[in-house]
Amino acid sequence: MRASQRSRAKYPLATISAYGPDNRRATKLVVGILRRAGQKDANPMRNWSTNTGNVRTDPVIAAELADWLRSQEIKDTVSYDRIIGCPPGVSRLQYQKQLRLQEARQLMLNENLDAGSAAGRVGYESASQFSREYSRLFGAPPQRDVSRMR
After folding, report:
1. Separation between Cα atoms, residue 34 and residue 26, nearest integer Å
2. CB neighbours (10 Å) of residue 116?
3. How many CB atoms lie within 10 A of CB 112?
4. Which of 38, 123, 126, 146 has the smallest number of Cβ neighbours within 10 A?
5. What is the structure's pLDDT at 4?
6. What is the DSSP string of the chain?
7. For residue range 89-142, what is the model confidence (pLDDT) as tens digits?
8. How far apart are CA 48 and CA 66, in angstroms?
């Protein structure tokens, strides 16, 4: 969220994300709550899931979500139109890490960034951690991998 948007947000704010195996069916709905500093932080996250249907169109889940948001006294919501597709067998954290590393790889290839700069741009604070995770995913350290791809 940009600073200009942040100042207009009403708190507590709920973020709603849908996850699924593809871009057609959401099997998990995750809601996180952002509160102003100093506000009570009870029940900051909740999720709903289904193995057979779509959580975004399930009337029971919609009613539970609405009741929970009211109980949390939510003033504003942010939701995403697209389903975030985690491949089966990959946790959200692993999937997010893979996306960050793929973005860093593209930055090094397309913008000629060095590994440290690319790591910082995608949110890594430790260059050594970035290099370890990059090597684990792509099979080679960042510099060697990018040189090989050029």
Report:
1. 23
2. 13
3. 11
4. 38
5. 42
6. --HHHHTT--SSEEEEEEEESSSS---EEEEEEE--TTS---S-EEEEE-SSS-TTT-HHHHHHHHHHHHHTT--EEEEEEEEEEPPTT--HHHHHHHHHHHHHHHHHHHS---HHHHHHHTT-S-HHHHHHHHHHHHSS-HHHHHHHH-
7. 677 678 788 888 999 999 999 999 999 999 999 889 999 999 999 999 999 999
8. 12
Would you say residue 42 has pLDDT above 60?
Answer: no
Spell out the domain ranges in the chain. 3-85, 92-149
- Fold classification of 92-149 is Arc Repressor Mutant, subunit A (1.10.10)
